[in-house]
Design goal:
The complex is a heterooctamer, with four copies of chain A and four copies of chain B. Chain A is built from eight helices and ten strands. By secondary structure, chain A is an alpha/beta fold. In chain A, strand 1 and strand 2 form a beta hairpin. The longest helix of chain B has 7 residues. Classes of the chains: A alpha/beta, B mainly beta.
Chain lengths: 264, 67, 264, 67, 264, 264, 67, 67
C-alpha cells in the first residue's frame, strides 16, 4: 500500500482531503481555504444562473485553478433520480465533457438524509451514460455494496447529517463498509473538527470530503490547514498501525527494574 | 415576438432569436454555462444554429459554491 | 495567543509534542522516532547503572542531542514522595543541575494510577528545593488546582491509564482542569493513536506527552510523524475555532435556491 | 579491605578506595551518572576526595529510556 | 399518553417487551423465559418440518399459551422479497389466518444487515395481501418513513446487528425515526443487556424486541425478568421526564444556606 | 451471592436505591417519592434551624417514618475535614446516637467536586470517633482503596458532578474501584435518568444514591418508581450475566437450516 | 408409484396418495404445519381432496424458535 | 442581661437563661435539634443544667432535605 497516492476511477490523487465550496464569505476566502487545505478535488453545485448579474461580477470558477484541482460537480438539493441525472448531464456539458461527478439524492429536506433507493436508480443510469460516479450514501453496508456492484468509482458514506458537524456517529457500520469494499471509501458529510477527519482516516477511509467544517469555522483558512494535517495524521497513523488498547492492567513505559526502591 | 421561460421566469424575445444572441443579451457570453431547452441539453456548438420558439422552456445553469 | 510558542516554567518551546524514550527496540529507533516526532522535550527515567555493562556499550544519552531537545527526567516507578524526591535530586546531579523535571508518584502497580496525596507532598518538597515541576496527576480538578497553587510549572493529567492507549476517558474532568488552570495543561498517559492527541489539543490542552503510542506502534517512526501532525492539527483546529454542532436540523452546504426543481 | 553495597549488591574494595577510582574500575568514567552514598548525593567535584568506608551503601544511577 | 397500553395495528398490548424464541437450551427454558419476561408477543420462525421427527417429540407451539401471548411469525433467514412473502403466507396458513407478522429481509449473511430495498418491495406486497406488517429495518429514517407510508403497522429499526448485543449504536438516527413516525417504533436487534432496553424506551421507543440478550445470558430466566423491569423503568422514566443535563456548573442537592461555616 | 440483601456496616438492607430529600416542591412530594422509590435509606442534610419558624410549621423528619427507613445524615456543603466532622457529631446528637453517616467534603463550589485529601482526614477522625462512614469520593481508585483501608463501610464514587445528571462519565475507573473493593460500592452523584442507574448496577455496584434525578424530574413521583425498577433491573441483569458483545460477525437468532431457499 | 420432493429430499409414494395420508404417514397429523405444493399453498380443508403427482415439489413447514 | 450569638445572629437574653428555656422561647421544644455551645456539643440531658453566658456562641441545627 502506498500512502502517497490513491485512485478514483481513472484519476490519481495525492491529497486525501476533498473540500466543498459552499458557505464561504466570498470567493477569495474560498480560494485561500482550498489552497491551504491542499485539496486536489473540490466540489461545486450546479444552479440556475442569476440573470440579473452583471457580466463583470466574478464567478466561482474564476477562483479555481483547474490545472491544480479537479472539479467535482454534485447534485446537492436533488430529491429524485431524474433531477440528479439531469443535473449531472448539464454539469458535464458545462465542464466540457468532465465525467467525474458526485451523486447525492436527498430523502428529506429537514435532515438532508440520503434517499438510497433513488440513489441506486440514479447511479445505474449515470454509469450507463458514461459517468464516473462518486456516490454519497448512508452508512448502510448493503446499499454500499450494491452501489459498488453497479459500478460506482467511490463510496461516500455519511459520518452524520450534512452540515451537522457531529462526527462519525456509527463507526461500526463505517467499518463494515470499509472492510467489504474494493473501492475507495470516502467519508462525506458530518465532519465537524480536525479529530473527526483523523478518526475517519485511522479507520481506513481513503479520503474525507467536507465543506461546513472548514467554511463555518471561526477562521476557515486556519481550519483548512488543520484539516490538511488531520487527514495526513490519520492516514499515517493508519499505515503505522496503532498500539493495542489495554483496558487495564496498565503497562509502564519506564523499566520496572533498576529502581532505587525495588517493588515487592 | 415569442414568449419563453428562462430559469422559471417569463421573457419576451424577438422572433428567430438564436441561443447565441440570447446568451449575449444576458451578458453570459464569457461565463461557463450549460443550457437546456425543453429538457434537452443544447451543446455549445449548436448555440448559433438553434432559434428559440414560443413557449420554449430554457434553463441556463452554472457552477456555484457547494459541498 | 500565539500558536507557535508555549512556555513551561522558564523555558519556551515550539513543538507541543513531548515524547518518552521507553519501550523502543533499540536506541537508534528511539533516535529516529524523536527526530520524526519533532519533539523538543523528551523524558528519561533514572535507574541504577547496570554494573556488568561494558564501557563501549552505548547509552541512551549518546543518542539524544541535548542542543536540540530538553531532557525531562521522570520518577516513573516511584510509589512514595521520598523515592520521587530522591530520584529527581539524583537526576539533577546527573544532568549537571538541570531543574525541569516530571514528577509522578504511582499508587498501584497494577493500574499505575497516580497517588495524588504523595504527589502533593513530593511536589511541595521539590518546589522548595528549587525544581521546576511538571506534575503527572489524575484528572481530579481539585488536586490539579492544588498542584498549581503549590507552584508546579505544568499540570499533566492522565487521559487514561499509563500504557493503556484508551484515549481520553473523561473529557469533562479534563475540560474543568483546562478551564481553571493558568498553567500549561499537558495530557500525559493514555494516548493510543493520532486522533487521541488531536482531540486533546482541540480541547485546549497546551501539549501532549506520550511514549507507548509511538514505541508500541507497528511502525514507531511512522507513528512519530503521524503524532507530530496530529498535535499540530489539533492545535490549529483549536485556534481556528470549530463550527457549532447541530444535532439536527441539518443545514445544506449547497444553496437551497436556483434548483432546477425548486422545493415546495 | 572494606565491604560496600553497590546498587543493592555486595562488593569488596581495597581500603581507601576513592569514588573516582571505583567509577574507573567499574568502567563508568565516560558515562553520565550520579552517585549517592548512604542516601547523600555526592557531587562530581568530590569524587576524588571521598573514600569509601566499610558498609557504605552506594547507588550509581544513570538515565535510561522511560515515558 | 397512556403508559399502560399501546396498539399495533388492530391489537392492543400492555407489555412493551417482545421476545424471540430462538437459541434456548430447550422448550421448557423458552417457556419460563417468556413467562418471566411478561411478554405478550413472541416471535417464531417458519422452517421445514424435520421429517425424521417422532410424533411424540414436543414442538415449540406446545409450550406457548396462545391465549396469553400473540405469535409473531418472522421471515428470519430470507434474503429476497419473494422468499419473505412466501414464508409469511405459509405462516398465515399455519396459524389459521393470523395476519400480524414480522417482516425482515436480510442483505448479507455475515452481518445480517437488512436489505432495505427488498424490504420495501415485500412490505408493499404483504400489505396488499392483507397482512399487518411489523417491519424490521435499518436506522435509515427515509426508509422508515417510506415503510410507514406503505402502510406498515410498526417500524422496527435495529439498535445494532442481530445477535451482536452492542446496544444502540446510533441514537441520533433512532431519534429522527421516533420523532417523525406516527407508528409504534420498536427497537429490534442489538439489545445486549438491561440498560440497552431502558435507553431505547427512555428515547421514546414504544417497545423493544429481543431474543439473544435473554437466551444467551448465563441465566436466561433471570435476564428475562431483568428485561421486563428494564423496559418498564425506561418507559416510566420517559413518561416522568428526565432532569436536564448540566455539563457543569454543578448544582448542589442540599441547601447552600444554613451552613455552620457559610461560604464566602 | 444473594441478590436480595446487602450489608452496610452493621445494617442490612433489601432496597439498593438510596435517595436524597433535597429539591422537592414540598415535604409531601418528598414523602411520596421516597415511598415510590422503595428506598430504605434516605439522606438528610444538617443545617441551622430557621429561628423565625413557627412551632406548627412542619419539618422534614415528620414526613419520614424512621421505622421504615434509615436516615443518613450527610455533610453536604462542607469544605473542610473540621466542618464535616463537627456536622456529623451534631447529627449524631440530633438523631439520638445514630452512627451511620455520609461523609462528603467538597473541593470547589462551582463543580462541587470532592476534596479527597480533606475527605481522607475526616474519614479517619470519624472512624476513630465510632462512626460508620459511607464516603462520597471521586472515581480515583487509589483514594478509594485508601478509604477502605481506613475503615469506611461503603465507598461512594461519583458518576459525574453532583446535580449534573451526566451519568457515568468514566466507567473504567468505576470498574477498577468495584474490582478492588471488598466494601459495598455505591454510585453517588451524577445519575440523571433510569438507564444511568441500570448501567451502574450492571457494572456490579452494590447500590445507587441519587437525589436530583428524582426531585428534578418533571414528575418526581413517577421517576422514583422508574428508578426503583431501573436499579432492580440492573442488579438482576448483573446476576443473570449478560451475553457477550460481538462486534460482528452477527449471529442469527433463528435457525440457519430448514429455510425454504437454503443459502449457498 | 410417483416420485415427489418433500422439503428438498426425494420420496417415493403410492399412486394417488392424498396430502392427508402423506401427513399421516409422516406422523405430522397432530402438528401445526402448513403445506405448499409447487409453490402454491394448500389450505387444510383440501388435504383430503388433493392427490400428489409425479415430480410434485412439496414443502411442509412449521413454527420453530426464532427471534 | 447577656448577649449571645445564635446561628450567627446576636440575641439578648435574661441572665441565667438555661438552654431549655432558650429552646422553649424559640418554639423548638418539639423539634428534633442538636445544640453546640462554643463548638462543644451539648447533650439533651444537660439542657436544663446549663445556663448561657455572655458572648456564648450557640448553634442550633436540625435535619433538612439534602442529597
Amino acid at each position: 500500500m502506498n500512502s502517497k497516492n490513491f485512485t478514483i476511477g481513472t484519476r490519481s490523487f495525492t491529497s486525501r482531503l476533498i473540500v466543498g465550496t459552499g458557505k464561504y464569505k466570498n470567493f477569495s476566502e474560498t480560494q485561500s481555504a482550498i489552497k491551504n487545505s491542499g485539496a486536489e478535488i473540490v466540489t461545486v453545485a450546479i444552479r440556475r444562473t442569476n440573470l440579473g448579474q452583471k457580466p463583470s461580477e466574478p464567478s466561482l470558477l474564476d477562483y479555481i485553478d483547474r490545472d491544480l484541482v479537479t472539479l467535482l460537480p454534485n447534485t446537492a438539493g436533488c430529491y429524485s433520480a431524474d433531477e440528479a441525472v439531469r443535473t449531472l448531464q448539464l454539469a458535464r456539458e458545462l465542464l466540457d465533457g468532465h465525467d467525474l461527478v458526485k451523486l447525492e439524492v436527498l430523502g428529506d429536506p429537514t435532515t438532508l438524509f440520503p434517499n438510497v433507493t433513488e440513489t441506486l436508480i440514479a447511479a445505474e443510469r449515470l454509469i450507463q451514460d458514461g459517468f464516473q460516479v462518486m456516490v454519497y450514501t448512508s452508512d448502510d453496508p448493503v446499499i454500499a455494496k450494491r452501489l459498488e456492484e453497479l459500478g460506482c468509482v467511490a463510496i461516500m458514506p455519511l459520518a452524520s447529517l450534512i452540515g451537522s458537524g457531529m462526527g462519525i456517529l456509527n463507526p461500526w457500520n463505517l467499518k463494515i463498509i470499509i472492510d467489504n469494499s474494493m473501492l475507495p471509501v470516502i467519508v462525506d458529510a458530518g465532519v465537524g473538527t480536525a479529530s473527526d477527519a483523523t478518526i475517519a482516516m485511522e479507520m481506513g477511509c481513503d479520503a474525507v470530503l467536507m465543506n461546513t467544517a472548514i467554511a463555518a469555522a471561526k477562521d476557515p483558512i486556519g481550519m483548512a490547514g488543520a484539516m490538511r494535517k488531520a487527514v495526513e495524521a490519520g492516514r499515517e497513523a493508519f499505515l503505522a498501525g496503532r498500539m493495542a488498547k489495554k483496558a487495564y492492567q496498565a503497562s509502564p513505559s519506564s523499566p520496572k527494574t533498576g529502581l532505587l526502591t525495588p517493588q515487592g | 415576438m415569442v414568449e419563453v421561460w428562462i430559469n422559471g421566469g417569463s421573457v419576451t424575445l424577438e422572433d428567430n432569436t438564436s441561443v447565441d444572441s440570447l446568451i449575449d443579451s444576458l451578458g453570459l457570453s464569457d461565463r461557463k454555462i450549460a443550457i437546456e431547452i425543453n429538457h434537452q441539453i443544447v451543446s455549445r456548438s449548436r448555440y448559433d444554429s438553434i432559434t428559440l420558439k414560443h413557449k420554449d422552456k430554457i434553463e441556463i445553469v452554472t457552477a456555484v459554491g457547494g459541498g
